[in-house]
Specification:
Blueprint: H1 3-16, H2 20-43, E1 49-53, H3 60-76, E2 80-84, H4 91-99, E3 106-111, H5 113-116, H6 118-121, H7 128-131, E4 132-141, E5 144-148, H8 156-165, E6 171-174, H9 180-192, E7 197-200, H10 204-212, E8 218-221, H11 226-230, E9 234-239, E10 266-273, H12 278-292, H13 295-303, E11 306-312, H14 313-333
Parallel strand pairs: 1-2, 1-3, 6-7, 6-8
Antiparallel strand pairs: 3-10, 4-10, 4-11, 5-8, 5-9
């Protein structure tokens, strides 16, 4: 018997081992699962929807999630609960969602870097591109270069000069290895020809507190720092975006400070487990789009210099693919490692 014959015989033998009763039970199980998913999709949501945020409370990502929670709850007719699971640069939260039942009741909220950076930076990262489906992008947050209040640097030029005089000693805090603030710090070092010491935390909240306490010299942070800048507890040197912060129009962008390649916003989105029913994803996407267009949500985002801007699943997926290529190059060029 040739190899093909043996394979066919083996396959037939396997079928023979499955009794008609067991075969019927197996097929029935598959049909029942498909039916249950269809019913759950039609009635979704029937209970609380949990949104897992991969950062600590108090940071920009967390504030964006909480700004959306009540409007999203009103639109869906069920509570929306925020659950912070910081750690692993968002990997802990991603793994939890990947392992959850794909029924629309467990969602991941976080920055794009969780999918675009972590796989090339952190060994054992989950395959978010395969195991999660991007539901939609909900907006972006500008990142800012701030310093502790007594650092002798009143401009980006001053900071660069200070860093060059003390290579590797000026510290900067970030919300974690591989996050947007960390990579912005790496890009700044590359463009300015300086060496800084990175101090990662589990979220932008702890990173901000570190700069406020003077434990780190500078930070790349979202608009959550505004109240501290106004109170004189932090100094704001520049905005790493394509436009100035509306609340601090006198503060230049990094482009205006002489670094034309530094435009680095933190884009935030929502993912669901890959097998989530399309009907659930469609309803969730529509609710997110409606929430992002509400004046109250837009205002809350603007309060910490974030922008509510919905992009659907297809557009979000394209952005993820493009940023994955860009970020993998930066990780290799800078020899960035999570170890």
């Amino acid at each position: 018997m040739n190899d093909i014959g043996k394979k066919r015989a083996g396959a037939n033998e396997g079928r023979a081992q499955l009794s008609p009763k067991r075969w019927f039970q197996a097929v029935s199980g598959v049909l029942l699962l498909a039916a249950s998913l269809t019913v759950s999709a039609q009635n979704w949501p029937a209970r609380t929807v949990r949104v897992v945020v991969g950062t600590a409370p108090g940071g920009g990502v967390d504030l964006m999630a909480r700004a959306l929670a009540q409007p999203l709850s009103d639109l869906l007719g069920q509570p929306v609960a925020i659950d912070n699971r910081a750690g692993g640069s968002g990997n802990l939260a991603a793994v939890e969602i990947i392992r959850s039942t794909p029924d629309g009741y467990n969602l991941l909220f976080g920055p794009m870097t969780q999918q675009t950076v972590n796989p090339s930076l952190i060994k054992g990262s989950p395959n978010s591109a395969k195991d999660l489906v991007p539901v939609g992008l909900i907006g972006r947050s500008q990142l800012h270069l701030v310093t502790k209040k007594d650092l002798p640097a009143n401009s980006v030029a001053d900071l660069v000069k200070l860093a060059k005089s003390k290579p590797g000693t000026i510290t900067y805090s970030s919300s974690g290895v591989g996050t947007s603030p960390h990579l912005l710090g790496e890009l700044f070092q590359k463009q300015a020809g300086i060496s800084l010491l990175h101090v990662p935390y589990k979220g932008s909240g702890p990173a901000l507190l570190s700069a406020l306490a003077g434990e780190t010299d500078i930070a790349f942070i979202t608009g959550v720092a505004y109240q501290h800048v106004r109170a004189g507890r932090l100094n704001l040197l520049a905005v790493a975006s394509d436009k100035r912060a509306s609340e601090f129009p006198q503060v230049p962008t990094m482009i205006e400070a002489g670094y034309k390649e530094i435009v680095f916003d933190a884009w935030i989105g929502i993912w669901a487990p890959a097998a989530t029913p399309p009907a659930v994803l469609e309803r969730l996407s529509k609710a997110l789009a409606d929430a992002c267009n509400q004046p109250a949500v837009i205002k809350k985002f603007n309060d910490f210099n974030a922008e509510a801007k919905f992009v659907d699943s297809a557009g979000f997926r394209l952005m993820l693919e493009k940023e994955t290529q860009t970020m993998s190059v930066l990780v290799k060029e800078r020899n960035i490692s999570a170890d």
